[in-house]
Design brief:
Keywords: Lipoprotein, Signal. Helices cover 39% and strands 31% of the residues. Among the domains are: 75 residues, Immunoglobulins (Immunoglobulin-like, Sandwich), CATH 2.60.40; 113 residues, no CATH class. The protein has 6 helices and 15 strands. By secondary structure, the chain is an alpha+beta fold. It is elongated, with a radius of gyration of 28 Å.
């Protein structure tokens, strides 16, 4: 009789345990998420062996991995609120949960930012003589439009235009790796990659929702690499509508202070509504640009 009771208890325990293993579990850390850097990070827990998928609004279903019962889904933000539907399936059991991602504010239109940035990169690559020609060309073109130039001056203007165009094309070819693509698809993409600098962008309907400038910390000890990083930083600030001199001045103060105190965080730099946040890993420096 005693053995029968013990056997029954053990059997009931196994049934309960097996039933528990088959139940689908799905939690989220929040119900409403906001942009953090270039994306909103939705995270939570589910069964260790669950198959997790998610859908943004009415878009396609995507799969994501589950590690030791936890998951992370990176959702690119847009200027509109989004609904993310999470689905976890364990065996024949499934569970669904919905969260929202708040609307973000665009830094600007991609085309406008890319044009400003690339024009500045090319302009800085010109020789001083060609830069002077380009500046005088603007004045002469205005005078020509007003009918103030003689025929000989018009011919000279045309030659100057050819010279400047040739110099700009040469500079464009030389700096090709440092230029932003003329066009970018929506999503999070690597836009520029050199030995010293990486630029990533989050694009939604051609709105730039965020940019990240990345540089290897060891490379910044080299003068040429440091110059490339500083130039890219200043031009991104300028191209997104910020006061580049103010931004670089505040960043310079932080780096000087950092050398003395080994501080690895800094307050947000804000200029004309554009925000610059700094992050570090063991090997890289990150500048997050948002609005």
């Amino acid at each position: 009789m005693k053995k029968t009771v013990v056997g029954l208890v053990v059997s009931l325990g196994l049934v309960s345990l097996l039933a528990g293993c088959g139940q689908a579990k799905l939690t989220t850390s929040k119900t409403n998420y906001h942009q953090n850097g270039m994306v909103a990070v939705v995270k939570g827990t589910t069964n260790k062996k669950a198959h997790l998928s998610y859908q943004i609004d009415q878009g396609a279903m995507h799969k994501t991995s589950v590690r030791e019962g936890t998951y992370v889904v990176q959702v690119p933000t847009t200027t509109k609120q989004q609904t993310v539907t999470l689905k976890a399936k364990t065996g024949s059991k499934a569970i669904e949960k919905k969260v929202t991602v708040a609307a973000g504010t665009a830094v600007g239109q991609y085309q406008a930012i890319a044009d400003k940035y690339n024009q500045a990169v090319i302009g800085m690559a010109l020789s001083k003589a060609d830069q002077a020609k380009a500046q005088s060309l603007q004045k002469q073109a205005a005078a020509a439009k007003a009918g103030q130039l003689a025929p000989a001056q018009l011919m000279a203007l045309q030659q100057t235009q050819k010279d400047v165009q040739a110099a700009m094309q040469q500079a464009k070819t030389a700096k090709k790796a440092q230029l932003l693509p003329a066009k970018s698809a929506d999503g999070v993409h690597q836009l520029v990659k050199t030995d010293n600098v990486v630029i990533r962008g989050a694009i939604a309907d051609q709105d730039v929702m965020g940019l990240t400038l990345i540089a290897p910390i060891k490379a910044l000890k080299d003068k040429a690499a440091l110059k490339e990083f500083g130039t890219s930083f200043a031009l991104l600030a300028q191209s997104t509508g910020a006061d580049s001199k103010k931004v670089m001045s505040e960043f310079s103060k932080f780096t000087k202070k950092n050398k003395k105190s080994n501080q690895t965080t800094m307050k947000t730099i804000t200029s004309n509504g554009v925000k610059f946040n700094t992050g570090f890993s063991a090997s890289h420096l990150y500048i997050y640009i948002t609005k």
